[in-house]
Design a protein that fits this description.
- It is a single chain.
- The protein is an alpha+beta fold and 78 residues long.
- It has one domain.
- Helix content is 40%, strand content 27%.
- The protein has a three-stranded antiparallel sheet with strand order 1-2-3.
- A hairpin with a 2-residue loop joins strand 2 and strand 3.
- The longest helix is centred in the C-terminal third of the chain and has 12 residues.
- The radius of gyration is 11 Å and the shape is globular.
């Protein structure tokens, strides 16, 4: 699934979940090192656990962030 992000530097997130486990995450745009790090950390994790950890994270004064947008994408998938 490709999730179109809102309110972040990244434009989209490619994400795949199989049997409740995150198998693939790739951010399109955004802070390359940070988004690669988030993707590496959540790959292999239960989607529900990732949502719990990432949901609500803000970026500076923005009400959302790339990790928060990933949580929103995962919620749509499961």
């Amino acid at each position: 699934m490709t999730y179109k992000t809102k309110g972040t530097c990244s434009q989209a997130i490619d994400v795949e979940v199989e049997n409740g486990i995150i198998t693939h995450v790739k951010f399109i745009g955004g802070c390359n090192g940070n988004t690669q790090g988030v993707a590496a950390l959540v790959t292999g994790m239960k989607a529900t656990d990732a949502i719990e950890k990432l949901e609500g994270i803000q970026c500076g004064m923005r009400p959302t962030s790339c990790p928060d947008q990933l949580a929103k994408a995962l919620k749509e998938l499961i």
